[in-house]
Amino acid sequence: MARTEGIADGGALIMISGDPEPELLADLDQARVGKARPVEATKRQLQAQTERTVNWTIAAYPTEGQAVQMFGEPDVERLWEAVASTVRLDDPDPVAAWQAHTGKLRARCELLDGLAFDAIHFKGPGTDLTIGLLPEAPWLGGGIETVSGIFHVANLPTEEVFTSPDWRRTEGTVRSTRPLHLGGTIVRDLEMRFENGEVVDVQATAGADAVRGEQAVDEFAKRLGEVALVDGESRVGKTGLTFYDTLFDENATCHIAYGLGGFGIEGLSGLSPDEQRERGVNISVVHTDFMIGGPEVDVDGITKEGTRVPILREDVWQLR
């Protein structure tokens, strides 16, 4: 977690991702691992990011430990090459490539905003999940402006378009399609069941207690704060690699996040947490993305009238 002293004064926030020991805490009490976090600092940072009062970015610095986790050997050079591809540094003109890419993501957001889906449905092996959306929550992707007008691309790489769901309206079951790196441990084969918007069951072949511990940090950590769509054209997904780093893995495929929401919604600043929750915005000191998409998972948008509109089939974007 980043230092937060300069956030209130309008400073930028820069974070570096790359865990030198991805499973450092795997032999500890996983429930305690999941709960371990600097609550007040996390709260200040997440509030600044969701309210867009700070411009920020997170980028990768490959480490030997991450390379060993991925390749079985400390081949950092191979990892650098993969990272370079995901952030388009191997293009003849990386700046132009980024401009075209972010423009495509923003166009998808405009399309999704225009369709005004009431819910998103994911269907695949172990997954049958319906996520109700907030009418006032825009789809975001390809960069964002602070309230003072500074445009920035927060995640490098980025392949997603995402929105804040209604924390009260998630139903069904979901199975993660990639491992989740969570605070010094790796969660594998994660499965969750939702009722009335809340996680009521968590299972995994490894790391389940870490997830349960994190979801016990506060009352609303068991509710969703984000749903994101990523298609098979993702530069991260095309590497065929699992990075054991959410910065990359969430940009390989569709994902959801339990915990904090509210991204891009106007009029939240100054409202109390309870007032924001009344509007359907989830407020928590947790925000954890995990991956649920892939070629075997169909994604549909559901209109207010109940009409289903295909969004992803076999990882191919269907909307035009």
How would you characterize this protein structure?
With 320 residues, the protein is an alpha+beta fold. 25% of the residues lie in helices and 27% in strands. The chain contains 9 helices and 18 strands. A hairpin with a 2-residue loop joins strand 11 (191-195) and strand 12. The longest helix has 22 residues, at 94-115. The protein starts with 12 loop residues before the first strand and ends with a strand.
Which helices and strands appear, and what pairs or packs with what?
Layout: E1 13-17, H1 30-35, H2 39-50, E2 56-60, H3 64-71, H4 76-86, H5 94-115, E3 119-124, E4 127-133, E5 144-145, E6 151-152, E7 161-163, E8 165-175, E9 180-182, E10 185-187, E11 191-195, E12 198-203, H6 208-215, E13 224-229, H7 235-238, H8 246-249, E14 255-259, H9 273-278, E15 287-291, E16 298-302, E17 308-313, E18 316-317
Parallel strand pairs: 1-2
Antiparallel strand pairs: 3-4, 3-16, 4-8, 5-6, 7-13, 8-11, 9-10, 11-12, 13-14, 14-15, 16-17, 17-18
